[in-house]
Amino acid sequence: MKGSPNSDTSFFFQKRLSSTTAEGASFRKPLYALLGAAGAGSLVALYGVATARIDASGTEVEPPSYPWGHNGIITALDHASIRRGFQVYAGVCAACHSVNQLTYRNLIGVSHTEEEVREIAAEYTFTDGPDDEGNMYERPGTMDDHFAKPYPNDAAARAANNGSLPRDLSWIIMATGGEDYIFSLLTGYYDPPAGIKVPEGLTYNPYFAGCTIGMPQQLYPESVEYDDGTPASVPQMAKDVTVFLRWASEPFHDERKRMGVKVLIVVSLLTAISFYLKRHRWSTLKSRKLIYRPS
Predict the structure, then answer these.
(1) 248: closest CA among 196, 160, 193, 175?
(2) SS3 116
(3) pLDDT of 187-228, one tens digit each?
(4) Where are the alpha helices (DSSP H) in 100-222?
(5) C-alpha angle with apex 234: 231 to 240, nearest 5 degrees?
(6) Global pTM value
């Protein structure tokens, strides 16, 4: 019957069942989304692990990340380290590698005084000319000369290095894996593991491509004597020459960051002024109320 208790009860349970079903469906949707996101995250994590294992199965070792002090947004290069790094370059690296981008004048105000730079440049002999009679001649170096090259040409460099051409170090930091790679390479000379045969004329270094490099170990304890008395350990020399090469690849590193700070200050002031104009000078227009009154 229409008004019987049984019909009312069945109607109540049908309504309750339909509402429960709707609530369950609305609950399952976010649950399924959460489970889907978790599953996708698990797949990404598994892929990362698999990829890491594949990368680790190669012969080269990924250089670790070191906390270089100049990598901050407003931090400058360590100029004392640049000076020591130049000593390492001049005493060790310059025998084979050049830095064609730099002149001796670039050192003034960065790591050396003008008088020191004059003395350093005068230690080298450069071929210049021609003179009035058309002949080339040799003269002492000046501050405007580029760093002296170890070889007169590429053919002489290859002949002195078993056919290998030593790279110019002007852009070595930019062209390779950065400071971490150079530091790891310079400190990464070890005895080869069992089962690895190193060809004659090469040296084992796990950070170089193929784990064999034509350059033998160059840095040994006390290879140079620092002017400031810093102990010349292998990691110290590697760190200093890496900082020097970082500066050599970008001599205006500090000036660039200094200019960036000035730009941020000016932009912040302009932003504050613009906000003031927007909030106060234009407030009368933004708060104006228009009322339509039909005639």
Answers:
(1) 175
(2) helix
(3) 999 999 888 889 988 999 999 988 989 899 999 999 999 999
(4) 114-122, 154-160, 172-175, 179-186
(5) 75
(6) 0.73
